[in-house]
Amino acid sequence: MKQRLKILIVTHNNLFPVDSGGAMATMSYVDELRKSHDVSVLITNPFVPSLENLVILKERWPNVQLYCGNPSEQKKFALRDFVKNILTRLGILRPLVFSNEENAQFKYEPLPQGDIELVDKALKENDFDIIEVNFVEKFPLIFNLPKDAIKVAVNHEPRFRRTMVQTQNKLLDVTYGSYLKKYQFKFENDLMNLFDAVVCLNPTDQKLVSQSIEKPVFLAPISAAWEDFEAIEEEGQAIENILFLGGGLHDPNRDALEWFLNNVAKQLFKRLGKKVQVVGEWPLASQKVLKSPYADFLGFVEDLNIFAKNSIMIVPIRIGGGIRTKIQWAMSKGIPVVSTTFGCEGIPCKDGEHLILANSPKDFVEGIQSLMENIELRTKLRIAANELAREHYSPKKVVDVRSKIYHQLVSEKLVLE
């Protein structure tokens, strides 16, 4: 039997309520990981659970140690955003929607004192074998992590690659994009080189990072199948919703929805009479700028499984990296998907077999229409995609891959000692 490792997971995802693909993936990961390892989860501000949701998490994970930022700080952020939204509606503030240049300007700043103190508390109370730091924003924690623990950076999306893609798609000025990419490349890679190992979520990211740093870079997917897989049966009901899943604070989601509303939504409504149903938290200011007669912003949906039934998911992602957990989740639930080629990167799917690929407005409208009108095609894709998700992205499969990496790192460390 493999050794139970003491693992600290550092994240800034708001885990509960589950309102994003990242939250789904982390919930699924911890659900499974705690069966074979001693797990602690550290959630930094400002995305800490409320006191009520923290109680729910503790009930769900009785054998997981939770470290969270101060919930009162979360209330301060919520109050600040509420005031900003009111002032924006009154026209006193301009809508907070950044240009592509501003979105690309990721700022490598020191972390707030609260993050450092929270990590220090966890380290004083535990002797961890593995410290897993998720998201590049939190990589500066490396300066306060102990030398004797194995430190792993999980790079969900290399920022320098996002800038590369934005520049290639002419969303950024070529000269400025080149400057930003070099700037981000230097800072991001210097931080990753301070860890013992790096984990990437798709092969393209892994290859780019492997060419950039000296430390080992592993490929290990995440899974958004945080609940049981649905049994796929033939359906006879009509499609009710065209679903866009994702929050507006994630730049690739903002870019994707803006492109879709500007280029596809009107054609879609004229031909099929369907609006886009946007599920996820979007700042009111962003909703105001993106306001369209062909889209409804629904915010957090209490039971996404029920709402998404008889839906088609659109994934018009054009920039970013990592892996689209929203597609994994849709596949696990039998929801047919129409995605850009970039959007499904890293998932071993085929056009017309597991989903419909669409890289133009015409492709999206025709792909959605074919799924709405052809029940046989819809059922075929749903079944094949569900089988793919079961094979590659079951929580057990994901944790087995990650556990193998961590045991390898521990064994190599023991040999060196």
Q: Name the shape in a single word.
A: globular
Strand order of the largest sheet: 3-2-1-4-5-6-7
Low-confidence stretches: 77-82, 84-98
SSE class? alpha/beta
Tell me the helix content.
Answer: 40-55%
What distance separates the N and C termini? 23 Å
Helices and strands, in order, run as: EHEHEHHHEEHHEHEEHHEHEHEHEEHHH
Whole-number mean pLDDT: 88
Instruction: Please tally the β strands and state the result.
Output: 13
Number of continuous helical runs: 16
Main sheet record: 7 strands, parallel
**Beta-sheet strand percentage?**
5-15%
Estimated radius of gyration: 21 Å
Model description:
- Helix 11 links the parallel strand 9 and strand 10 (about 295-300).
- This protein has helices at about 20-35, 50-60, 70-90, 100-105, 115-125, 160-170, 175-190, 205-210, 250-265, 265-270, 285-290, 305-310, 325-335, 360-375, 375-395, 395-415, and strands spanning about 5-10, 40-45, 65-70, 130-135, 150-155, 195-200, 215-220, 240-245, 275-280, 295-300, 310-315, 335-340, 355.
- The chain contains 16 helices and 13 strands.
- The longest helix has 22 residues, at about 395-415.
- By secondary structure, the protein is an alpha/beta fold.
- The protein has a seven-stranded parallel β-sheet with strand order 3-2-1-4-5-6-7, sandwiched between helices. It has a six-stranded parallel β-sheet with strand order 10-9-8-11-12-13, with helices on both faces.
- The protein is globular and about 65 Å long.
- Helix 10 runs parallel beside helix 14.
